[in-house]
Design brief:
With about 250 residues, the protein is of the alpha/beta class. It is built from ten helices and seven strands.
Length: about 250
């Protein structure tokens, strides 16, 4: 059964290759979308190549709504986007995928039903298909090579849907079974190194010793050290001292 999350329907119009239908299903499910509608697939339905390519997203294909016309696929929708890579001589708003999915979220939140149409691989949507749409989605691509694979185009749109629907931190650190070091742990490390480097007469000449120690302390504080890092650095210094003592 489809998930209960309100979302746009993804409409594949006259797709030609089963592999691209399966790839589109996979791309949709990667980003939490599972409402697929297919209009007149060239090779009929069901399609085993689509199933093979879906790689775990086969449920979307099983539950896909198979339609005989674009009008049928959009009958229950109140707002429709059409994706196209080239100008169509039709007066419509043209949006980036990011902005289009923002509009889609607003309309779906208000109770409307939204669909996004994708055309066949060879030629894309026809003007007669786009005439059903309220707005156009145009992906900013290299103008010298504007052709996008069907599944890639579905993935871009699905990604923009999820990006605006969930709160994802722009950066995070994977803590590999450790925690950030405390100030006291960093201070102990700094003291350990100062003591051993002092014994090794690293802080030379004497009149520069204070500034060298300050630079060293500043270096430690600038590093995002974990407790594992602290233990490793203590161990490195202890081992170097042992090696020096054995050499003597």
């Amino acid at each position: 059964m489809p998930v209960g999350t309100p979302q746009p329907a993804i409409v594949l119009v006259r797709p030609q290759m089963g592999e691209n239908i399966g790839g589109a299903a996979r791309a949709m499910w990667n980003f939490g979308l599972d409402r697929m509608r297919i209009v007149n697939p060239r090779d009929g339905w069901p399609n085993q190549k689509a199933v093979a390519m879906s790689s775990g997203a086969g449920r979307l294909l099983d539950e896909a709504q198979i339609c005989t016309s674009v009008a049928e696929s959009l009958a229950d929708c109140t707002y429709v986007f059409a994706t196209t890579a080239r100008a169509r001589d039709l007066t419509k708003p043209v949006m980036t995928p990011e902005h289009a999915m923002k509009i889609a979220r607003e309309k779906i939140a208000a109770g409307e039903k939204v669909a996004v149409m994708f055309g066949p691989e060879r030629s894309g949507l026809e003007n007669e298909d786009i005439a059903h749409a309220n707005a156009i989605i145009n992906v900013p691509v290299n103008p010298e090579y504007a052709s996008l694979n069907l599944a890639q185009c579905v993935l871009l749109t699905s990604y923009e849907w999820m990006r605006g629907s969930v709160d994802v931190a722009p950066e995070r650190v994977e803590m590999a079974k450790t925690n950030w070091a405390t100030q006291s742990e960093v201070e102990a490390l700094a003291h350990h190194y100062e003591e051993r480097l002092d014994e090794a007469r690293f802080f030379f000449p004497d009149h520069k010793a204070d500034s060298m120690k300050l630079n060293l302390r500043n270096m430690w504080s600038r590093m995002p050290l974990t407790r594992a890092d602290i233990q490793t650095l203590h161990g490195m210094m202890r081992q170097m001292v042992r090696w020096k003592n054995r050499a003597e």
